[in-house]
Write a structure and sequence with these properties.
By secondary structure, the protein is of the alpha/beta class. It is built from 11 helices and 8 strands. It is globular.
Length: 338
């Protein structure tokens, strides 16, 4: 029987302390284990858990009442690490709604001044919150790449997952970003959309779904975008609890396990990414962070390391939830893997 949603992978324990998980065993059977990191080229930062939404699938359980966030000292340390580690090409900022953090803009400006690519994981509706009236202009001015959540091109499916009124706000936000030049070839401003399933099933073909999104959004709303990224819902936190309430948890885990695709392993995002939590702790990925599974060498923080190349070759902590990234066409923060 698959482990429960809060025990998958072994919470709060280092890779050497935890019992072998089914994912690690499958990698060994396929001659692909243990999973190890290559060179870190992306620093992904969960800057805080406060959000104007509380989506059903949110694996970090963010929402309007969450107050946890990286402090100013931590934000300054992120910039220091970027300066010390020129091999890190991208700062990928997530949350919560990253834009609600008081030091968000200073962090973006600092990273861009260092010549780094900055990605903002945006829920779109944040653009209409008080104090965010000029956020789209700030994005364009700084050349921030936007990865925007839009789990469907229909009102019914979006609001079933993210709440009433979210679809309309998302459409208006996309139109505003287009008006700023996003997804226009001459601007260089990147706007990607993210699809994740509304229920307990794998995403369809990324290419075919992208074509559907383009047709619907262009014809009905005049919206253009660069790429559609399909992301599998991870069986952890809110989504796992929903699966358990509906009696679907074991069936969903079986779906992921039965669709394990070894071709995806080489492209897993944890191979060249390190994830930083709002308290500065290092993790192998955002999902391990949500489950409080620490980076190898338990408890290391951004203040305990200067050279991120030290992490190359290190063993990546895995859990049964990792089947979500390798199933079918695969899943990562950059969409399908194959």
């Amino acid at each position: 029987m698959p482990p429960g949603p809060e025990t998958a992978g072994g919470r709060d324990r280092s890779p050497d302390d935890r019992a072998p998980d089914a994912f690690a065993a499958r990698l060994e059977e396929a001659g692909l284990g243990p999973l190890r990191r290559t060179r870190v080229t992306t620093l992904q930062l969960n800057i805080g858990l406060r959000c104007n939404l509380a989506c059903h699938h949110c694996h970090v359980e963010s929402g309007p009442k969450r107050e946890e966030r990286l402090d100013r000292r931590g934000c300054e340390r992120i910039l220091e690490l970027l300066e010390r580690n020129p091999q890190v090409e991208s700062l990928d900022i997530t949350g919560g709604a990253p834009e609600m953090h008081p030091d968000f803009r200073d962090l973006v400006r600092g990273a861009r001044a260092l010549g780094r690519r900055v990605i903002d994981r945006c829920n779109l509706t944040i653009l209409f919150e008080p104090g965010q009236e000029d956020t789209d202009a700030f994005f364009a001015e700084q050349g921030v790449e936007i990865v925007a959540s839009l789990p469907c091109y229909s009102l019914e499916n979006v609001e079933a997952q993210r709440g009433r009124g979210v679809f309309d706000g998302s459409i208006r936000a996309l139109q505003r970003l287009n008006a700023r030049g996003y997804a226009r070839p001459e601007s260089g401003l990147v706007l990607d959309l993210v699809y994740n399933p509304v229920g307990a099933f794998l995403p369809p073909s990324q290419a075919s779904l992208e074509a559907d999104y383009r047709e619907k959004l262009q014809n009905e709303f005049g919206i253009v975008f660069d790429r559609l990224l399909t992301i599998t819902n991870m069986p952890i936190k809110r989504f796992a609890h929903e699966l358990q309430r509906e009696g679907e948890y074991e069936a969903y885990m079986a779906l992921l396990v039965n669709h394990f695709n070894p071709d995806n392993v080489e492209r897993l995002m944890c191979r060249n990414l390190v994830s930083v939590s709002h308290d500065g702790t290092l993790h192998d990925c955002d999902f391990n962070q949500a489950l409080e599974i620490p980076l190898h060498g338990s408890g290391r923080t951004i203040f305990d390391i200067d050279d991120l190349d030290e992490l190359a070759g290190g063993r990546i902590a895995t859990g049964d939830h990792c089947f979500g990234c390798t199933s079918g066409s695969g899943s990562s923060c950059g969409g399908a893997l194959s």
